Description:
Blueprint: E1 5-9, H1 13-24, E2 28-31, H2 38-47, E3 50-51, E4 63-66, H3 73-81, E5 88-91, H4 97-106, E6 111-118, E7 128-133, H5 136-145, E8 151-155, H6 162-190, H7 194-204, H8 216-221, H9 223-239, H10 245-254, H11 268-273
Parallel strand pairs: 1-2, 1-4, 2-3, 4-5, 5-6, 7-8
Antiparallel strand pairs: 6-7
Helix pairs in contact: 1-2, 3-4, 6-7, 6-9, 9-10
Amino acid sequence: MLSVIIGLLHPGAMGAAVGAQLVATGQHCVWVPDGRGPATRRRAEAAGLVALAGVEELASCEVVLSVCPPAAALEVAQQVARTGFTGYYIDANAISPRRSQEIATVLDGATVVDGGIVGPPPHRPDTTRLYLSGAADAVSRVRALFADTIVEPVVVPGSVGAASALKLAFATYNKVSHLLAAQAYALAGQYGVDAELRELAAAVFPTTPLAAPERLTSVGQRAWRWAPEMAEIADACRDVGLPAELLDAAETFLEHWRQHKDEPDLTLDHLLAALSRPRA
């Protein structure tokens, strides 16, 4: 595989892990440290990413990969567009199909490939997929970049927006089911039957979040990212005439946990207690 210069924006937990996979296959990955904090810098260095002097240097990249919070996806694309970038732009964020198409319009001088990452940051095989849609030749080129990594590239038939639609459809079930489990345990706890709920869930729904409430703390730590994703899913629903009230409620629900952003010692008790307090 020929090595290309890939700009990665920005190396959070997911972006840095994806970048590390690309670096391991011989790709030259760069990033822009402007405005980033110490934790981001540590992740970028550990992943083997090379710092650029400024965002304008992205213009010389052959590929730019955007992995950022959903609310920032359009702004990041606009920043890249202002550099005059003309390569392949992969938007791998949890955004609505309409937002993906807006980004393609903003980057009219580049070739945009729609992406959707499903699974955790890639640290072991068979856990993380990157769904891709768009022009066939562009998707094929991007797919080849990940062929030798543990990130599994999967082509989705259709134009820009199709991969995002699949990502959001999956997230609707996957993420809202975790919120329902949290609500269920908060309710059971108030009435003193949470232990019984855990036993019942283990017997009837053994593979669901309801049977493993200890995993819910990771949801609280990521609520600041999940809330805007719920807003994107709600927009995607409205765009095709589907009810969006459930997703609006999910966004509101997650606001109870914003103060727990990346909190390393968060416990289930603290997480559930936050549901009884006014939103931050």
